[in-house]
Design goal:
By secondary structure, the chain is of the alpha/beta class. Helix content is 56%, strand content 8%. The radius of gyration is 31 Å and the shape is elongated.
């Protein structure tokens, strides 16, 4: 609380000053700067018959900075800013612009010196200015947005400094050893710091590399926000401009002749190209996380930004972006594979009597499709000792006799990583091919990605996503908008909803689904990500009377037993809510399809797996922990579906395509290709894949279905990665 004291005092005091009092320093110094700079330019013309372009440019930049700050203050868009702050910033900006008029006399003075001495002084000047401005820029980038910037680890500041120094070195030689491009370093530091400030203010999130890919969307959204000038932003702009003014003094002197100038220019460009190659190689081969000994928070990256500073955290996220092209990949080849596989679907499963009946029915009915991804929903009766202790799984879910299809869902995450399962389901892309520990929602711009939301929107459906938690978690607010969801209901829309364990009940989200359906008779696609069953599962997080104590043989850890039985109480509550939802859907006078699945097993599964199956073969051991159940159900008779509760093992990336095929909905060429390849590879996830022979294989194994897996990787790269890289 003490740290907030100065801020509160500043805000209270600044309210006493009028807009005019805050904007006056900038107005006055703007007039002074224009007058003095104009005289300087005129005097140079009178004496030398030339316009001091460099000095004039710096003066114009200073005038622009003062003008922007004056306009900011005159509109009253300030917070915590005092007149003394305004005077300090205005004086430094104006002085920096005017000091640039000393640039030419210094250059002339150096030109008149003994050449070796002049070269030494130039080199010393450049080193001091470049190193100094990089150090200042390393301070600026975090100062303007982070109140605790002074508490950042020294290693983080040093890493930021080295990154900016590397950038400055490249710009120095690319700009022919002048300050022509070097000013980008402090300006970029201030710009990114200010952008981060407003992203945190408006979204409570971090500025990610994917945000730069969606700059146009961000600019459109930003129009609805108020941008307020703070002391940190004002001083950051001042410091950045002062650095840019200092860098204007960087000048190599005149070359001896045209040939010498051409050789120097060529040498500088060669050095710049070499530096670019070295830096690119370093970026791709050196992990900043390993170098600084941290791992960025892939659920809430903002925590890492606050703990490590903007530049190290931003680079850590950026190093997660790239996915190498699959072996043998070409765009033409992948496109041909998709076309060939889609043609095989059209000639086979796509023209079967069952599919044709379902397609004709879908065209008439246009059923509403509800997809519920239930947080941590799993059937732990797959653990032998748990089943033998009397637990038979979620009984209502397992006993639903008229599901169209059900089975095991091979997911790529366990204990967390919810967003990866929903990413796979909504885009048809398996994270198995993206790389370990990546959260696609945090890395990529989804504006040009095919998704279920966009697909249903194209069919004339209303599209709604809902999650009774903060929309900034996993960047969902941005991602859902980019995917094409027309509406996103987050925690604010669940105010007052009943809660259980970790948040709003599953039933509360189901009620919201029914509200969406009641509000619009048109066909809808609703995607619901629940929250109730989220970890942890400590004692007391559910009513004591809800806990049925199962005691699996071999599990003696009291903490693990408590977590297990608390979790099972949560699943029982979910099971009851699901039964109620299906009862309500049965009574609706509109066709509805429900896809219901768990995103991952709970964190308690790790302890169970290791305790109950020690020394097991690693692939088999891991597989058990990366599986949840799913069902596809409808409240009407789906044409062509003559087998109820058929069992099929699949994965989230394939589940959507298989559901659309089952109910007769149109499929994309990519989805058709997925279905054909699933005849050889029914399920793929980060742990491995299931072959058509019922055996499990490692992703890199040379099994009988390796070529089908390679084809799947290539067409997924074509469908997703080439659009975001």
């Amino acid at each position: 609380m003490q740290a907030q004291g100065p801020i509160v005092v500043r805000m209270a005091v600044s309210m006493q000053f009028s807009h005019e009092a805050l904007s006056a320093p900038f107005s006055i110094l703007l007039l002074v700067l224009c007058g003095v700079a104009g005289f300087g330019v005129w005097w140079t013309w009178v004496r030398e018959r030339r316009i001091a372009l460099g000095e004039a440019a710096v003066s114009l930049a200073g005038a622009a900075v003062l003008s922007v700050l004056e306009d900011w203050c005159s509109q009253g868009a300030v917070e915590g800013l005092l007149p003394s702050d305004c005077w300090t910033v205005a004086v430094v900006v104006a002085a920096g612009a005017l000091v640039s008029f000393a640039r030419r006399p210094m250059i002339v003075w150096l030109e008149g010196m003994w050449r070796p001495a002049a070269e030494v002084l130039r080199a010393l000047r450049d080193v001091v200015l470049v190193v100094g401005t990089c150090a200042a820029s390393a301070w600026i980038v975090d100062y303007v947005w982070l109140d605790t910037a002074a508490e950042l680890p020294v290693g983080s500041f040093y890493a930021t400094f080295l990154v900016l120094l590397a950038l400055a070195s490249f710009l120095y030689v690319l700009g022919q050893r002048t300050g022509l491009l070097l000013w980008l370093v402090p300006v970029a530091a201030a710009g990114f710091g200010i952008a981060q400030h407003f992203v945190v203010l408006f979204k409570g999130a971090a500025l990610l590399p994917s945000d730069l890919l969606a700059a146009g969307t961000a600019a459109a959204v930003a129009e609805g926000y108020d941008f307020v000038l703070t002391p940190q932003i004002a001083y950051g702009i001042m410091a950045a401009f002062a650095c840019a003014c200092a860098l204007s003094f960087v000048w190599p002197g005149h070359a001896g002749g045209k040939r010498s100038a051409a050789l120097n220019a060529g040498a500088n460009l060669i050095v710049a190209a070499a530096l670019a190659g070295v830096f690119a190689s370093t970026f791709s081969t050196t992990s900043i996380e390993e170098g600084l000994g941290f791992s960025y928070d892939r659920w809430q990256p903002i925590t890492t930004y606050r703990a490590r500073g903007f530049v190290p955290a931003f680079i850590a996220v950026a190093q997660d972006l790239a996915v190498p092209e699959p072996e043998g990949y070409t765009e033409e080849g992948a496109a041909a594979d998709i076309a060939r596989l889609a043609a095989a679907y059209d000639a086979g499963a796509g023209s079967s009597p069952q599919r044709l009946e379902a397609a004709a029915q879908f065209e008439v009915l246009k059923p509403t499709v509800i997809a519920v991804m239930d947080e941590s929903f799993a059937d732990l009766s797959i653990y032998d000792a748990v089943r033998e202790a009397g637990y038979a799984g979620p009984q209502r879910f397992n006993g639903l006799a008229d599901a169209l299809v059900r089975g095991a869902l091979d997911v790529s995450v366990s204990g967390g990583g919810t967003a990866n399962t929903e990413f796979e389901f909504l885009t048809g892309t398996s994270t198995a091919f993206l790389g370990a520990n990546k959260i696609a929602y945090q890395l990529y711009d989804f504006s040009h990605i095919d998704s279920l939301a966009g697909q249903f929107d194209g069919l004339g459906y209303g599209t709604t996503a809902m999650h009774p938690q903060l929309g900034v978690n996993y960047q969902r607010t941005s991602v859902y908008r980019e995917m094409g969801f027309g509406e996103f209901l987050d925690i604010d829309d669940f105010e007052g909803a009943p809660g259980y364990h970790a948040g709003a009940t599953d039933g509360a989200t189901f009620d919201k689904i029914l509200e969406v359906l009641a509000s619009d008779e048109a066909p809808q696609f609703v995607f619901d990500v629940t929250m109730q069953n989220h970890g942890g599962y400590d004692a007391g997080t559910v009513p004591e009377e809800d806990v049925i104590w199962y005691m699996p043989a071999g599990v003696e850890d009291e903490g693990l037993l408590t977590q297990l039985n608390t979790y099972l109480a949560c699943i029982e509550a979910s099971d009851r809510d699901l039964e109620a939802l299906i009862a309500q859907l049965r009574s609706l006078d509109r066709p509805v399809v429900l896809v219901y699945f768990g995103d991952h097993q709970p964190s308690v599964s790790t302890g169970l797996n290791d305790t109950l199956y020690p020394g097991e073969e690693p692939a088999v051991h891991a597989q058990r922990q990366y599986q949840t159940p799913y069902i596809v159900w409808a409240n009407y008779d789906v044409a062509g579906c003559d087998q109820l509760s058929a069992w099929r093992e699949t994965d989230p990336a394939l589940l959507a395509a298989q559901t659309l095929h089952l109910i007769g909905a149109p499929l994309s060429e990519y989805q058709k290709a997925q279905i054909v390849l699933s005849e050889q590879v029914p399920a793929v996830h980060a742990v491995g894949y299931l072959g058509a022979d019922g055996l499990r294989y490692a992703l890199e194994s040379e099994g009988p279905f390796a070529e089908a897996l390679s084809q799947l990787e290539r067409i997924q790269y074509y469908n997703f990665m080439r659009r975001v890289q």
